[in-house]
Automatic annotation (TrEMBL):
Residues 86-216 form the GST C-terminal domain. Coiled coil: none annotated. Residues 4-84 form the GST N-terminal domain. InterPro entries: Glutathione-S-Trfase_C-like, Glutathione-S-Trfase_C_sf, Glutathione_S-Trfase, Glutathione_S-Trfase_N, GST_C, GST_superfamily, Thioredoxin-like_sf. One of its GO terms (biological process) is glutathione metabolic process. Gene3D superfamilies: 1.20.1050.10, Glutaredoxin. PROSITE patterns: GST_CTER, GST_NTER. The lineage of its organism: Eukaryota, Haptista, Haptophyta, Prymnesiophyceae, Isochrysidales. One of its GO terms (molecular function) is glutathione transferase activity. Transmembrane segments: none annotated. This is Glutathione S-transferase.
Amino acid sequence: MALTAATVTYWRGRGRCEPLRVVLACGGVRFVGNYLEKKADMDALKASGKLQYDQVPLVEADGLNLVQGTPTAVYLAQGCGLWPEMPKEQYICGHILAATQDARGPLVSFPFHLDEQRCLEELQSPKGLLGRFAPRWEALLGEGKPYFLGATPSLADCAVYEVLDFVRHVYGEERLKALFGAFPLLLAHHDRVLGLGHMREWRDVGRKEAFLDWPEYAASVRATLGF
């Protein structure tokens, strides 16, 4: 059955939740944001029994309390028509999703130190986004496909889009284009995925209304976790 609505619980920032929001937005699913702001919010959420491992993000959909990023992303993709049926294509989606989780690590950490140069050096390192992952993704798209699986978008496209969008969020549109100048297919792919569902609306309107600035977001995470 197609997914029609969801409630997403996390802080007012990207962190480890934004890939899930992107899947919902690309799939055209409207979601409600439930935002953590103080320690009492997290304590109440834990007491509710909704968190299997006392961790967020939490996505409530289809009567389920979905936790842990990878299985949640797959479940949402299935409900949004963004998960393939063939095992080989499922594997492709899976390895690309796992790679994006590694690639976005320096970006997840950025709000907690705000050192743009440090983040950039990590992204440009031989094992980072630009050194390791972007060339592989560019090569996969280089086979003349609009999306990683061909003519049909999938979870893999959402995940890679989110990483580039995160770079754009930190460094701006022009810097994104400069950093990915050697990867024109990825840049074109980014623009293509932005047109799916209501992704553009979430990026340009919803996120701006919901999110805090980087320092405020980091402060809210620390306060909620009691740091």
